[in-house]
Amino acid sequence: MKRTRTGVKICGITEEAGLDACIEYGADWIGFVFFERSPRYVSASRAAVLGKRVTNNIKKVGLFVNPDDTTLKQVLDQVELDILQVYTTPDRALQIQNQFGRPVWVSIPVAGKGDLPSQCPVQRILIEPKPPVDALHPGGNAQQLNWNLLQGWKPTYPWMLAGGLNPENVGQAVAITGVPAVDVSSGVESAPGIKNPRAIARFIHNARAPVIV
User: Fold this and answer.
1) 117 lies in which domain range?
2) Where is the N-(5'phosphoribosyl) anthranilate isomerase (PRAI) domain (predicted)?
3) For a surface tag, which of 13, 33, 34, 118 has the fewest beta carbons within 10 Å of its beta carbon?
4) In 3D, which of 84, 46, 59 has the Cα closest to residue 8?
5) pLDDT digit string, tens, across residues 91-130
């Protein structure tokens, strides 16, 4: 079964080599993490420097965890972000989208079919596994969702799959779920926060290669 071109986001960019690989191999989005407890955290000034290297119409995504308006404004005053990705409530995500005039993606943690959202208040929803109760981060924990939960689920809005993806399993994940776009961070790293260009190349290729299941 062939599929349409899968969108790919590489998140947690902190250094030039990883960013340049995203550009070379055709990522659609790159993500900067503005959450200080993350090993992939970058300051606004560092993200601004990296962002100036972005070409090929790649969109720059800023990831925030329960951000207040002041935090968002301080980052946006320094970095040209195309999209805001937030861990917060859907109502707050919509408020941010309206206030800051940029598309917003909201992350929805899922443990079972009952957690799958029926509506999308903002531009896109990211589906990822619910974090462990003792997790220090709301996402980026390298957990893998049970993809079978998503079989037959066909939302009418844009969505993306995250959590535990890597070059070896992304093709199967896309084939099983039919997801239009995928998000990876630790799955293409050689060390926390350091991207592996060869892994990025393989991930993007395998996300878009036809798979039969």
Assistant:
1) 7-208
2) 8-205
3) 118
4) 59
5) 999 999 999 999 999 999 999 999 999 999 999 999 999 8
